[in-house]
Amino acid sequence: MIELCDVTRRYDEGPPALDDICVSVAPGEAVAILGPSGSGKSTLLNLVAGLDHPTTGTVTVDGVRVDRLGEAASARYRRARIGLVFQFFNLLDDLTVSDNVMLPAQLAGTARADAERRAADLLARLGVSRHSDAYPGRLSGGERQRVAVARALMNNPALLLADEPTGALDTASGEEVRKLLTELHADGQTIILVTHDLTLATACATRTIRLLDGRITPSAAEGRAGARVTPSGAEGRAGARVTPSGAEGRNRATGDDAAGRDR
Amino acid sequence: MSALGKVVRSGVARRRVPTIVTGLVVMVAVTSAVLGASLSVASRGPFERAFQQHHGAHLAVRIDPAKATPAQLDATATAAGVAAVAGPFPLATVSAGSGQFRMPPMEVAGRGTPDSAVDELTLTRGRWATGPAEIVLAANGRFNGPLLATGTELTLDNVPGNPVVTVVGFARSITRTADAWAPPDQVTAWQTAQNQNQNQSQNQNQTASQPGYQMLYRLTTAGTQAQVEAANEAIAAALPAGSLTSATSWLAVRRDVVGDTVLLIPFLIAFGLLGIVMAVLIVGNVIAGAVASATRRIGILKALGFTPGQVVRAYVTQALIPAAAGAVLGLGTGYLSTLPVITKTNDLYGTTDRGTAPWIGVLVVAGILAVVALTAWAASARAGRLRTVDALAVGRTPHAGRGRWASRLTSRIPLLSRPVSLGLAYPFTRPMRSAGMIAAIAFGAASVTFAVGLATSLSRIDEVEDIAAVQITAPMEGPRPSRITDPDKVVAAITAQSGTSGYLGTARTEVTTPGATGQLTAMGLTGPDASRYYRMVSGRWLRGPGEIVVATPFLTATGTKVGDQVTLTSEGRDIPVRIVGEAFNIDEDGMQILTDQATLGLTPEIYYITVKDGTDIGTYAAALSTALEPLGAVADTVDHSPPEMLVLIDALTALLTVLLVVVAGLGVLNTVVLETRDRVHDLGVHKALGMTPRQTIAMVIASVVLTGLAGGAAGVAVGVLVQRAVLAAMGRGTGFTLPASVVDAYGPGVVLLLAVGGLVIAVAGALLPAGWAARTRTVTALRTE
C-alpha cells in the first residue's frame, strides 16, 4: 500500500511542485499520473521512489516512511521494493545489456552467477535475450526500454515506477512498451506510471490521476479509457475511490483496495 | 560589464572547484618552485658569498718568529699569486677554564681590530678586546655553547701566574683562523711568559705553546689546491728556509664548513628541477582538464555569437584569475618557508642575506603563469575551433566504446563487489585523463622516492663516521694534539672499561708518493673498529702493515689500481706498500691514505671508542677520563649532531616533498572531480538502482586504485632512476666511486611501500570528490545533463 498524505514539495522560492496532495495506491493497481510539463508528475514519482523528500507531508510504502529515509536506507529501499523505468532509459553505455540488467541485483549483493541466471530469464521473457552481450547503443529505442524494464524487474520489486516510458520512443516502439507494461500489470505487478501519453494510460492503467500545477485536478481520477470515476468509486475499473477535494479541501486520490477492483 | 567580462566572472564564480583547485595548485607549485630554487642557491653559495664579503683568507700560515723578520714577512705581500696580506699576528696556545669547567686548548691570535684587508671578523656578541686581560672567542668555534657568555672570566692554566681574562665578545672568522683573539701585546706577553716557563721546566702535564706568528693571505687565484700550494711555495720561497712552519688552505676550511653539503648539490638541483617540472605538469593538467570540461559551455557561447578569439580570451582570463591569486599567495609562502634557510646560513656563515633573490620569485611566477596561459590557450583554442554544433554535442559522458573491455574484465573478477569492479574500469574510458592523473601521481611518488633515496644515501655516508661515542686525545701540541705517550696503557684502560665495544686509534702524517703532487695525508690506524669507519668500494680492508686502502681520486691521480704496489716516502724513508682496497673516503679530497699504524711507525693521536648498547656515554667518558688521568689523556663524548646545514636541508627537502605530494594530490582531486562531474548522471542512475553512499564512495575510490598503483610504480621507477643518475653525476663530478651500500638505498620493502605511496596519494585526492558523489542527491544527479 502506497500512501502520500498532505504532501507538498517546494523548490526554492517558486510555487510548489506538489501542493498538499494525498494519493493512495493499492497493491496490484496500475495508476497513471497524467498532466502537462511542470505539473509535478515526476516529482510525485521521485517521492515514492525515495529519490526526493517532501517539504511537508508523509510518504509511506508498505508501512515504510520513505520520507524519513536517509540516502543509504533509501538506496536499500529501492533495491528491495522499487523498479525504475526512465524516459531516456538511463542504461549505462559502458555496460553490456546483461551487465546493465544484473546491476541492481549485484548492488544488493547477489552472486554474479545467480544474477546472470535471473537476467537471462528476464531478457528472454522480454524478448531481448539475443542482445544480452551487446551494448545499449546498438539497440533500438524499444529494445532499450525493454532492457530498462528488465533491469527494473531484476530484484522482483513490489512496485514498478515508470517515468514517461514511451516518451522517447517512436510509435512502433511505444506500442511494444505499452504491451509490455500491460502484460506486467496483468501478471499482478503494481505500477505507477507517469506519462503524457493518454493511449498508454488507457492501455495500462486501472486508474489515472491528473495533476496541474502540483495539485490534483477536480477530475482527479479516472477509470480505464478515461471514464470518470465517481467519488464512491463504484464505476471505476480500478475501483478507486476518489475525493476530489476531500473534506478539508485537500487534493485527494485514493485507491480502494477492496471495493470495485476489476481483477 | 561586457559580455566577455560576464562570461569570465560567471565562469570563475560558478565553477568553484576548478577555480579553487587551480588557485591552490598554482600556490603550492609556486611555493615549491621558490623553495626548490632557493634551496639550490642557498646550499651552493653561502660560504663563498660570506668568504667574499669578509675577505676570507685563502691561506693562513704559521711563521717561526725566530727565523723570519717582520720586514721579510712584509715582503711576502709581493710573492707570486698574493693579492693581499694581513699580519703578522702573534699566536699563543692557551688552556682556559672557569671553575670546574675546562676548555680544550685554543689558539689565540693577537689582533688589534676585527677589521682587516684579509679575514675581516664579524662581532656577533659583545665588543672587541681592547685592553689587557680581555679576550674574544670565536663564535663558530668549539666553545660557543650555552656555558659561556660575555663577562665570563677564564683562568689560563698554561700561562705562568694563571692570569684571568674576561670574555668581552664573540666574533666569527669565515676562514676560522683562530679559536680566540686578544690584543697583540697581550698575546705576545703570554707567549713570552710561556717560553720562559718552558725553558725552566718541562712539565709533561702542561700544554706547551710554540711561539709563532700568523700571516693571512688572499690570493689572485685559489680555486684549486694546486693554485693554493703554488702560492704557498712562493711565500715560503720569499722567506728564510724553515720559517714557514704550517699552512692552512681555505679549501680545507671550506670542506670542513660545508662538509657533506657539497655532496648534496646534485641532489638538490635534481630535486628542485623535479619540483618545477611537476608543478608545471600538474598546473597544465588542471587547466587543460578545466577548459576541456567546459567544451559544451563553449559551444553554447559560440551559438550565442562568441568568436573563437573571444572564447580563447574568456578562458585564458578565467584560468589566469585564480592562478594569479594562487601565485601571489604561493610567492608569500615560498619566501616565508625559505626564511629559516636564510637565517641559518646567515648564522652559520656570517652572510647578510635578507631573503631569496627577487629574480627567483619573478621567474617562478612568470613561468607558472605562462604555463597556465599557454595551457588554457591551447585547450580553449581547440574547443573554440570546434564547429558549434560539435561543441554542443560534446556530451559529458565518455566517448562510447572506450574501455568497455576493461568493464567486461573487471565485472568478472571474483570476490569484487560490483561498485568496486565498476570503479576499476573507469580509468579506461578516458585514457588521456587517466594518463594525466598517472603522471601527477608518478611525479609525487618520484619526489618521495627521490627524497627517501637522498636521505638514505646521506645517512649511510654519515653513519660510518658517526659510530664513535667517545674520543681520547692527548693535550694539544700547537694546532694538533700531541701523540699519546703510552698507547699500550691507553688501550688497556679502554679495554678494561666496562661498556667498551671497540676502538680505533688514529695518527696522521704526511707522505709523498709518485704520481701524486705534493704531500698527502696518511692515516695510521689501529684497533678492532678500524674497518667499521669506512665503506669499501672494491678490494678488501687492511690485514696488517705494508698495505694501504685509498679512495678513487687517489687511484685516478696516481694511475694505480687495487693490487698495485706503490712507494710512500715519509721523513726521507721509502716504504713499499700494496693497495689492497678502494674505500669511500672523502677526507682530503679523497687523497688520504689509510694504513696500519705499524706501516709508518706511528703512535695514535686520537682513539675513537664505540660502546655497547645501553651504555651511558657521559658516565662512560667520565670514568674513562679518570682512568686515563695518569696517562695525560682525556676522554670526551663525541658530538653526533649532524651539521646544522644538513639538518636544515633535510627538513626543507621533507617540506618540499610534502608540497609536491600535495600538488600531486590536488591534481588527482581535480581529475576525480572532473570525472565525477562527467559521470554525475550515471551516478544518479546507479543510486536510483540502489547504490548506497558507501558503495558510491567505494566506486569512486576504486576508480583511482589502478591509476594510483600505475603512477606509484612509474614514480618509484623514475625516482630510483633519477637517484642513480644523480649519484652517477655526483660520482663523475667529484671523482669518487660510491659504494653499493650507499647507492642501493632502496630495499624491496621500501620499494613496495613507496609504490603504495602512489595509491595513498590517489586515494587521498579522491576522498573529497567521493564524499561529494556520495552526498549528491539522486534526483539532482539524474536531472544533470
TrEMBL record, chain A:
Residues 2-238 form the ABC transporter domain. The keyword Nucleus does not apply. InterPro entries: AAA+_ATPase, ABC_transporter-like_ATP-bd, ABC_transporter-like_CS, ABC_transpr_LolD-like, MacB-like_ATP-bd, P-loop_NTPase. Keywords: ATP-binding, Nucleotide-binding, Transport. SMART domains: AAA. Residues 249-263 have a biased composition (Basic and acidic residues). PROSITE patterns: ABC_TRANSPORTER_1, ABC_TRANSPORTER_2. Belongs to the ABC transporter superfamily. This is ABC transporter domain-containing protein. It comes from Winogradskya humida.
UniProtKB/TrEMBL annotation, chain B:
This is ABC3 transporter permease C-terminal domain-containing protein. It comes from Winogradskya humida. InterPro entries: ABC3_permease_C (IPR003838), Macrolide_Exporter_MacB (IPR050250). Its main location: membrane. Coiled coil: none annotated. The keyword Transmembrane helix applies. Residues 270-384, 656-770 form the ABC3 transporter permease C-terminal domain. It holds the Pfam family FtsX. It is found in: Cell membrane. It is a multi-pass membrane protein. Keywords: Cell membrane, Membrane, Transmembrane, Transmembrane helix.
